[in-house]
Specification:
Layout lengths: L1 H18 L4 H20 L2 H22 L4 E7 L3 E8 L15 H11 L3 E6 L5 E8 L5
Antiparallel strand pairs: 1-2, 2-4, 3-4
């Protein structure tokens, strides 16, 4: 399954290059950031790695859909025992769009986290903004 992990990381890097027009993304990826990500990614069991990727993806989709224009901070920390994900935006805190149906993004994130016995929190911040936090425990792949 390491090919799936590598393929996902390569696909993510290519998408980043396309979205950023190749400038900042290329320099960050060529500057060694991608190597560190790949090393950490390789320690994660396949399912946990995919869950981390999808949780970050969905949280960022929610920022774009519901908080824009806003600034957003993404943190993914892997300490060898668990992965902690935090996505925080400074948007208006409203989470509905006129004419949009009810989505299942937060439910899907919660279900992914619960599959691995982790914890999940999502909610508005005092004053302004929204925070998604997930913690997924795992055993390192050898």
């Amino acid at each position: 399954m390491s090919a799936v992990r590598g393929g996902a990381a390569q696909g993510e890097a290519e998408a980043l290059r396309q979205e950023e027009g190749g400038s900042r993304a290329d320099s960050a990826l060529e500057g060694g950031a991608a190597r560190g990500v790949e090393e950490a990614w390789g320690r994660l069991p396949d399912g946990v790695g995919l869950a981390v990727y999808r949780i970050v993806q969905e949280a960022l989709t929610n920022v774009v859909k519901h908080a824009a224009p806003a600034r957003c901070r993404v943190s993914v920390v892997d300490d060898g025992v668990e992965v902690r994900i935090e996505v925080v935006d400074d948007g208006p805190g409203r989470r509905t769009l006129p004419g949009e149906g009810a989505g299942h993004g937060l439910i899907g994130m919660r279900e992914r986290v619960m599959m691995y016995g982790g914890t999940f929190e999502a909610g508005t911040l005092p004053g302004r903004g929204f925070r998604v936090f997930a913690q997924l425990p795992y055993e390192e792949v050898s």
